[in-house]
Write a structure and sequence with these properties.
Number of helices: 4
Distance between the termini: 78 Å
Number of strands: 0
Radius of gyration: 21 Å
Helix content: 55-70%
Length: 88
C-alpha cells in the first residue's frame, strides 16, 4: 500500500480522513432518509423539496438531498387524468 500512496502522491492520513468523511456523510444521509420515510408514510404525496424544508438537515444541501431521495425512489408519481373533452 505504501508504494501505491507514494505513486499517487497521497498521504495515508489524508486517505483515511477521506474515508471517515464519506462514512460520516453516508450515515447522515441514512438518518435523514429515515426521517423522510416517516414523513412520507404520513403524507404520501408530499414532495421531496417540502420534506427537505421540514427536516432541514445540517450539512446537506437541498439539491444533494433531492438527488439522493430520487435515487432511493422517493419521487411522487403523477396520476394521469384520462378525461377527454370533445366539441359536440
Amino acid at each position: 500500500m505504501n508504494q501505491l500512496f507514494d505513486t499517487l502522491c497521497i498521504k495515508k492520513q489524508s486517505f483515511h480522513q477521506m474515508l471517515q468523511r464519506k462514512e460520516k456523510h453516508l450515515s447522515q444521509m441514512e438518518q435523514t432518509l429515515f426521517l423522510a420515510n416517516k414523513i412520507r408514510i404520513d403524507h404520501p404525496c408530499m414532495s421531496v423539496r417540502t420534506i427537505y424544508f421540514k427536516i432541514q438537515p445540517q450539512g446537506i444541501g437541498r439539491d444533494k438531498f433531492e438527488t439522493y431521495c430520487y435515487e432511493c425512489g422517493y419521487r411522487v408519481k403523477k396520476h394521469k387524468n384520462f378525461r377527454t373533452t370533445t366539441d359536440s
